[in-house]
Amino acid sequence: MSLKKKIVLSFLLSAGIIALLSVFLYLNFVEIRGETDFLELTDTIRSKSLQLRRHEKNYFLYAPSEASDETKALHQYLAELDGMLDSAQIRSVNRTASLHKLVREYGSQFGKIESLVGAALHESNRLKRTSPSYLGVSRLIEANFLNKPLEDVDYLEKRLLVPPGHRFIASLKDLESEITALRKTGENILLEAKELDTTAREKVDDFNHRSRNAILIIFPLFLVVGFGTFFFIINSVVKRLHLLTDVVEKAGEGRFTTMPLSRSRDEVATLIHKFNIMEEHLTLHEKELLQSKKLAAIGTLAAGVAHEINNPLNNIFTTAQRLQRKTGGECPDYLKRGLDDIFGETMRVKGIVGDLLEFARGREPHLRPVELRSLLAGVYRHLGEQMDTGAVRFLPDLHPGEIVLYADQEQLEQVFINLFANAVHALPNGGDLVVRADEEDHRVKIRVSDTGTGMSSETIEKVFEPFYTTKDKGTGLGLAIVFNIIQKHQGEIEVASAEGKGTTFTITLPKEEKRKEANLVEALNRQGAKDARKSTASGLL
Length: 541
What we know:
By secondary structure, the chain is of the alpha+beta class. It is built from 13 helices and seven strands. The protein has three domains: 35-207; 269-361, Helix Hairpins (Orthogonal Bundle), CATH 1.10.287; 364-510, 2-Layer Sandwich (Heat Shock Protein 90), CATH 3.30.565. α10 (409-425) runs antiparallel to α12 (478-488). The protein is rod-shaped, with a radius of gyration of 59 Å.
């Protein structure tokens, strides 16, 4: 994940936590506000219930003729409670239904009491007209209707001998029963009002508690996540940048090391990856520059040595010719064999001197179009005239079939002659010599592979060094010349081999459109080689 995505993700995560907290607190605030309004309503209902009970007590203390104000107050509070409970049911039906039922039951019971009081007064007036003894105590009896109706019943039955089945007695008994039921319902209303108020308060306290817990949990979580991701990203980036700085400083001192890649795939990891690639290229270029300087120094030395050897070698050769002509047919066999050895070894040394001069000259390539398939076929055919290739299967594999290179044909022929000759030497019992060429966008990649004896890792490291050879009669200059030619074509050559499994040389040559870009690099390399030759020559002097 990229660094940008990590930062955005950490920001979104922190913002999401804050947004979650904000939404939760907002919804909780709405709920608390609603519950607070409900709590105010339940508190008012509880207060009205207490007022209802107070007026109920006052109503029963007065005579019916004097209780009109209390009656109005009771009806008023009942109406107010009924309206409040209608509003409260909108908020919570479950918590107000029982209380609403009790209030309506209370109103029905109070209506019955009013009816029974009216009936009792009607019977009392009738009894006044028929019983003079009741007329004297009627005011006392009527004043006690609502307070102690059963005492009136006892007095009427025992003192005034009113029969138990009289409608006046029945009204008073019903009134006592309804008053008891009304008082019980009033007690239940007060209990339900208190319970409703307590439940509302607990609900508000619960919301407040949840809000407090949410803040205590989510806000520290935001701090932990926000600062944790922040410090994780900063620490990861800064740590790797410090490591990269140290590696860059070492690279500046010429000590090339590769940084390990972390599992993260952010911009810093990309930078480290690009730096490792750059360092590999720098290491490769440093080796190439060192090889170029080494080749330039050896070339200067080889040119001088070859020039010095060539003159006495020519004298030896001409002297041997004169001796052979003077002796003619009278030459003994041992002398003739000696002269033949001189001629053979002289020609061998002249070949070595020729290689040295070729290696030392290293002329610039003359670029022209070269068709690769015909060049490879011609080289292999020419090689077959010089050495036995009968047991070797030559397998060219080009993609596409016709590949045109802009190169020096003679120098490329020399490259493939050396590579093919080495492959044939590595196949004493026969095998495959495969040449695969692939044309890419800006380059051509050629792989020369054999199924021969292969090379050890120590040999691979020195294979392009001048005068290094594993052959008994080799000069050790063939692959050094190949390396030099490929470099002058702004190309690259690599070798991969395993003992007993064969060897593969991989040549990468630029196509024509990329040569202009490589010319500047080549010019700089030539200047570096010239400086190296000058310093080497001054050292030899």
